[in-house]
Amino acid sequence: MKISSRLPGQEGFRMPGEYEPHRGCVMIWPVRPGSWPHGAKEAQQTFAAIAREIAKSETLWMLASGEHFAEVKHIFADCENIEVLEIETDDAWARDVGPTCVVNGAGAVRGVDWQFNAWGGEYDGLYAHWEKDNLAAKKICEALSLDCYDAQDFVLEGGSIHSDGEGTILVTEACLLSPGRNPALTKEQIETKLLEYLGAEKVIWLPRGIYQDETNEHVDNVCAFVCPGEVVLAWSDDPKDPQWELSNACLELLEKEQDAKGRKIKVHKLPIPQQPVCITEEELAGFDFEEGEDMREAGERLAASYVNFYIANKSVLVPQFGDVNDETAVNILEKLFPERKVVPVYARPVIVGGGNIHCITQQIPLGKTCDEAGEEK
């Protein structure tokens, strides 16, 4: 593995769309007591089910600490397309701590190693220690034989960016301009960083994300490309719901925007759950928070959204919450992804931890590793 301080965009690399072919997907085994209640048992069952589904069409790498490595390896012993890697992290949010991969015209794949500070560092981060998480991207690149771009001077999480693969990046102002990330940089300077590292031509700044999203409103929870020129947008028809105002602000902006290729963006509304998803007393009793960690409260509304899906090579895994809109979301996505099987996954055990299916997965594009590309290790 080679670590470079150069800029991917200048070397002809770009961030592909999630719907482009994958080599595989990275996940992390959940164990953190402050994120996953009651010994993380329900979360682990759900993570395992998601991993097995993804592994039907692409390699799945599951990260586990040395303490849990043998246990996790045993759990997936019957699945030859799942490989367990001994890499220790602070929590299980692979989207945010894993590398953002970029590709070039020759088919080479490299990772970008952003700085991770637990969604806000000392200002409003969600836990006090994130050193292992911040080392994860580089270790993943090494394990997967990917050369790596050093972007440790810039705080960013994978869930805060979405690419169409053709030069357009979606972000939210609420997240990327939050004081806990890159307060010394202006909006224009942040945009320049994104264009340089993602090989992009345009950044679309949505104003807001999902109500109560503790990541400062990541874009992957509110809006996602389903193909170039088309997005799904989390939506509420209820003016009394706090999400109504946030989604309408995003829609108003998207209706005026064009992508990097000059196309008007087609917006498909994807409803949020009709009934707010809230944490229960029983779930709350199962957490063990450490000092400096964000503590949940009984009855707290969680940032449940069907936009937080994962696009695998042959399927789309969409979260389900036991809500009347579960089936509606599946039906909408089936029309948007006719070439893939839409797989509903009951994901309450994941949203209780603070995110969902997209948050716990990070795709690795299909392409040449540094060995295959004949590059220096």
SSE order and pairing:
Layout lengths: L2 E2 L17 E7 L12 H14 L4 E6 L1 H10 L6 E5 L7 H4 L2 E4 L5 E7 L5 H4 L6 H13 L3 E9 L6 E2 L4 E5 H4 L10 H12 L3 E5 L16 E5 L2 E6 L6 H15 L9 E6 L9 H5 L24 E2 L3 E6 L4 H12 L4 E6 L1 H4 L10 E4 L12
Quick description:
The chain is an alpha/beta fold.
Overall average pLDDT? 96
- With strands numbered from the N-terminus, the spatial order across the biggest sheet is 1-7-6-5
Low-confidence stretches: none
Question: Which sheet architecture does the biggest sheet show?
Answer: 4 strands, mixed
Helix content: 25-40%
* First-residue to last-residue Cα separation: 4 Å
Number of helices: 11
Global outline: globular
Beta-strand percentage range: 15-25%
Number of distinct beta strands: 17
Q: From the helix content, strand content and strand pairing, which structural class follows?
A: alpha/beta
Secondary-structure element order, N to C: EEHEHEHEEHHEEEHHEEEHEHEEHEHE
Radius of gyration from the alpha-carbon trace, in angstroms: 19 Å
Tell me what you see in this structure.
The protein contains 11 helices and 17 strands. With 377 residues, it is an alpha/beta fold. The strands form 5 sheets. It has a 4-stranded mixed sheet, sandwiched between helices. A 4-stranded mixed sheet has the order 4-3-2-17. It has a 3-stranded mixed sheet with strand order 8-9-10. The model has no long low-confidence stretch (mean pLDDT 96).
